[in-house]
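Quick one: structure tokens for this chain, please?
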Amino acid sequence: MRNLILGSEKKRATADIIILVLLVFTAWELLTKQLGLLSDFLYPSPQSVFTQFRADGAELLVHLIASVKLLASGMILAIAFGIPLGIFTASNKRLEFVVRPIANVLSPIPPIVWVPYALAILPSFQASSTFIIFIGAFWPIFINTLNGVTNIDSRYIKSAQTLGLNQYTMITKIIIPAALPSIFSGVQVGLVLSFILLTAAEMIGSSAGIGFYVKFATDYGNYTKVITGIIFIGLIVTVIMTLFHKLEKYLLRWRS
């Protein structure tokens, strides 16, 4: 019964989203091409944008591959360091008392402010961009992992210790599964920040990527391409976040 209700609500939500998108595109078409209330230069019609999509399909794919590589490199590093360090810090109260205040000071600093140092110290723009994405994603992953582990019900830990589980089994079978919802929340925040930082980094000095595509079009006043790039970014972010939520739902299926 519950699954039927959830399925019905999901269908209604999907229908509402489709209706909203159609209304937006209808208003866009009316204000630009039909009524001419908006400038064609700054606000190209939907038809112009769709035509640009078809013309630039191969180019957008090349830029997408470059963006995904950069995003993946930063996110993989953030996950590889953030989760183990969060677990390790939470397992030592003395270390946690030292690290948590430092994290509370450093984590709110916008990662983009590290760009000048990253460009000056690191050997390439690729490495600098990876570092900025890593910094942006690392803190939410680390802090959420730390919070997730420290908030585990102590009864689970005591029961595992009573059974004589070794440290590896304790971490893989008790700590990580119990902290996984919080870890996923941190990864989601890190992923959202990474999208923002990725686009910003590519617009600053990259020679490839979706952000570069938008920046290059802006420099030459081609706002049809600008809108095309913005919509393309929105579609890619939607696809990636949808896949992420499906993975989260699968790995946390035990909660339901």
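Residues 236 and 242 are 10 Å apart (CA to CA).
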